[in-house]
Amino acid sequence: MYSDDDLRSAVTAGVITEKDADALRDYVEQQRSTQFQDEEHFRLVSGFNDIFVVIAAVLALAALWTLGNTVAPWLGGLAVAVSSWLLAEYFTRIRRMALPSIVLLGSCLAGLFAGSFLTLTEIWGDSALVPLTSFIVTTLVAVAHWFRFRVPITLAAGAATTVGLVISAAALTFSFSDSLLKILLFASGVLVFALALYWDRSDLERQTRRSDVAFWLHLLAAPLLVHPIFVTLADQHFAIGLPQALATIVMYAVLASVSLIIDRRALMVSALSYVIYVFSALLDSYGLVSVSTALIGLIVGSGLLLLAVFWHPLRRALINALPQRLSTAVPAAR
């Protein structure tokens, strides 16, 4: 089975022409009665070898973390980070394996952050400088990783560490409060969402890795946007009542409309956990504890399945209602 990435690689290598690749795409699209970009395609696993490599890498890196920590936390984190980078030199730069590349990026950044955080905690205690310094180091490595490997998820990972850096800096500079945290998270979500739209806008046909970059940024933007709103709606004890449930429905409907317009299901999936939590808590408050999970699964699952079936007609209706200036800035409705 060949992916769209394979077609692009074949064109780059001169095996086939761009015209032939387009003709093959058109043929496959007609056979499937859909478009590549309509399916929000991105590469994750090309074969079982990807999973095999990930299992082996996780076992080796976990062993390095344990052995290094017997000496010092910084050594365990450094060993994991350096080993992940060296493994990426082969599995990412040479083999271009998607899933191992994602896991190795995560282990590199996580190892570096954990090692520096634990080490600095021993030196500075509970000082706000500990997370700030750890996030600075991790963000710098994420930037270097992007310029070296260009893994699509790297920008989202770097954005996440940058958000942590900003929050840590705010905790060090201002009188920190829950209100400030919510404002920072929401503002970060807006900026990440704008960045995702920028990458989406540069590839409306969804045929390059720029679309994959946008996918991961959308996946990060959704919880950053939704979490502050959800926490604001709920009280300090996270008690959920009918008003909170209705507000959550409205919020998710708005998010679904935006997802339809920009043709990104990742936004809805990323925010789905909040919807499930709200309705599970609501049913529990009415004494339906034993069947709450099944009811939530049935209602939410059925709704999402209906949306999947009618995705294109609904999206076409929304796109047609937009001003032309906006409709031309998103993927064309099919």
UniProtKB/TrEMBL annotation:
<feature type="transmembrane region" description="Helical">
    <location>
        <begin position="98"/>
        <end position="121"/>
    </location>
</feature>
<feature type="transmembrane region" description="Helical">
    <location>
        <begin position="213"/>
        <end position="234"/>
    </location>
</feature>
<feature type="transmembrane region" description="Helical">
    <location>
        <begin position="266"/>
        <end position="283"/>
    </location>
</feature>
<feature type="transmembrane region" description="Helical">
    <location>
        <begin position="127"/>
        <end position="147"/>
    </location>
</feature>
<keyword id="KW-0812">Transmembrane</keyword>
<feature type="transmembrane region" description="Helical">
    <location>
        <begin position="71"/>
        <end position="91"/>
    </location>
</feature>
<keyword id="KW-1133">Transmembrane helix</keyword>
<feature type="transmembrane region" description="Helical">
    <location>
        <begin position="289"/>
        <end position="311"/>
    </location>
</feature>
<feature type="transmembrane region" description="Helical">
    <location>
        <begin position="180"/>
        <end position="201"/>
    </location>
</feature>
<feature type="transmembrane region" description="Helical">
    <location>
        <begin position="154"/>
        <end position="174"/>
    </location>
</feature>
<feature type="transmembrane region" description="Helical">
    <location>
        <begin position="240"/>
        <end position="261"/>
    </location>
</feature>
<feature type="transmembrane region" description="Helical">
    <location>
        <begin position="42"/>
        <end position="65"/>
    </location>
</feature>
<keyword id="KW-0472">Membrane</keyword>
<protein>
    <recommendedName>
        <fullName>DUF2157 domain-containing protein</fullName>
    </recommendedName>
</protein>
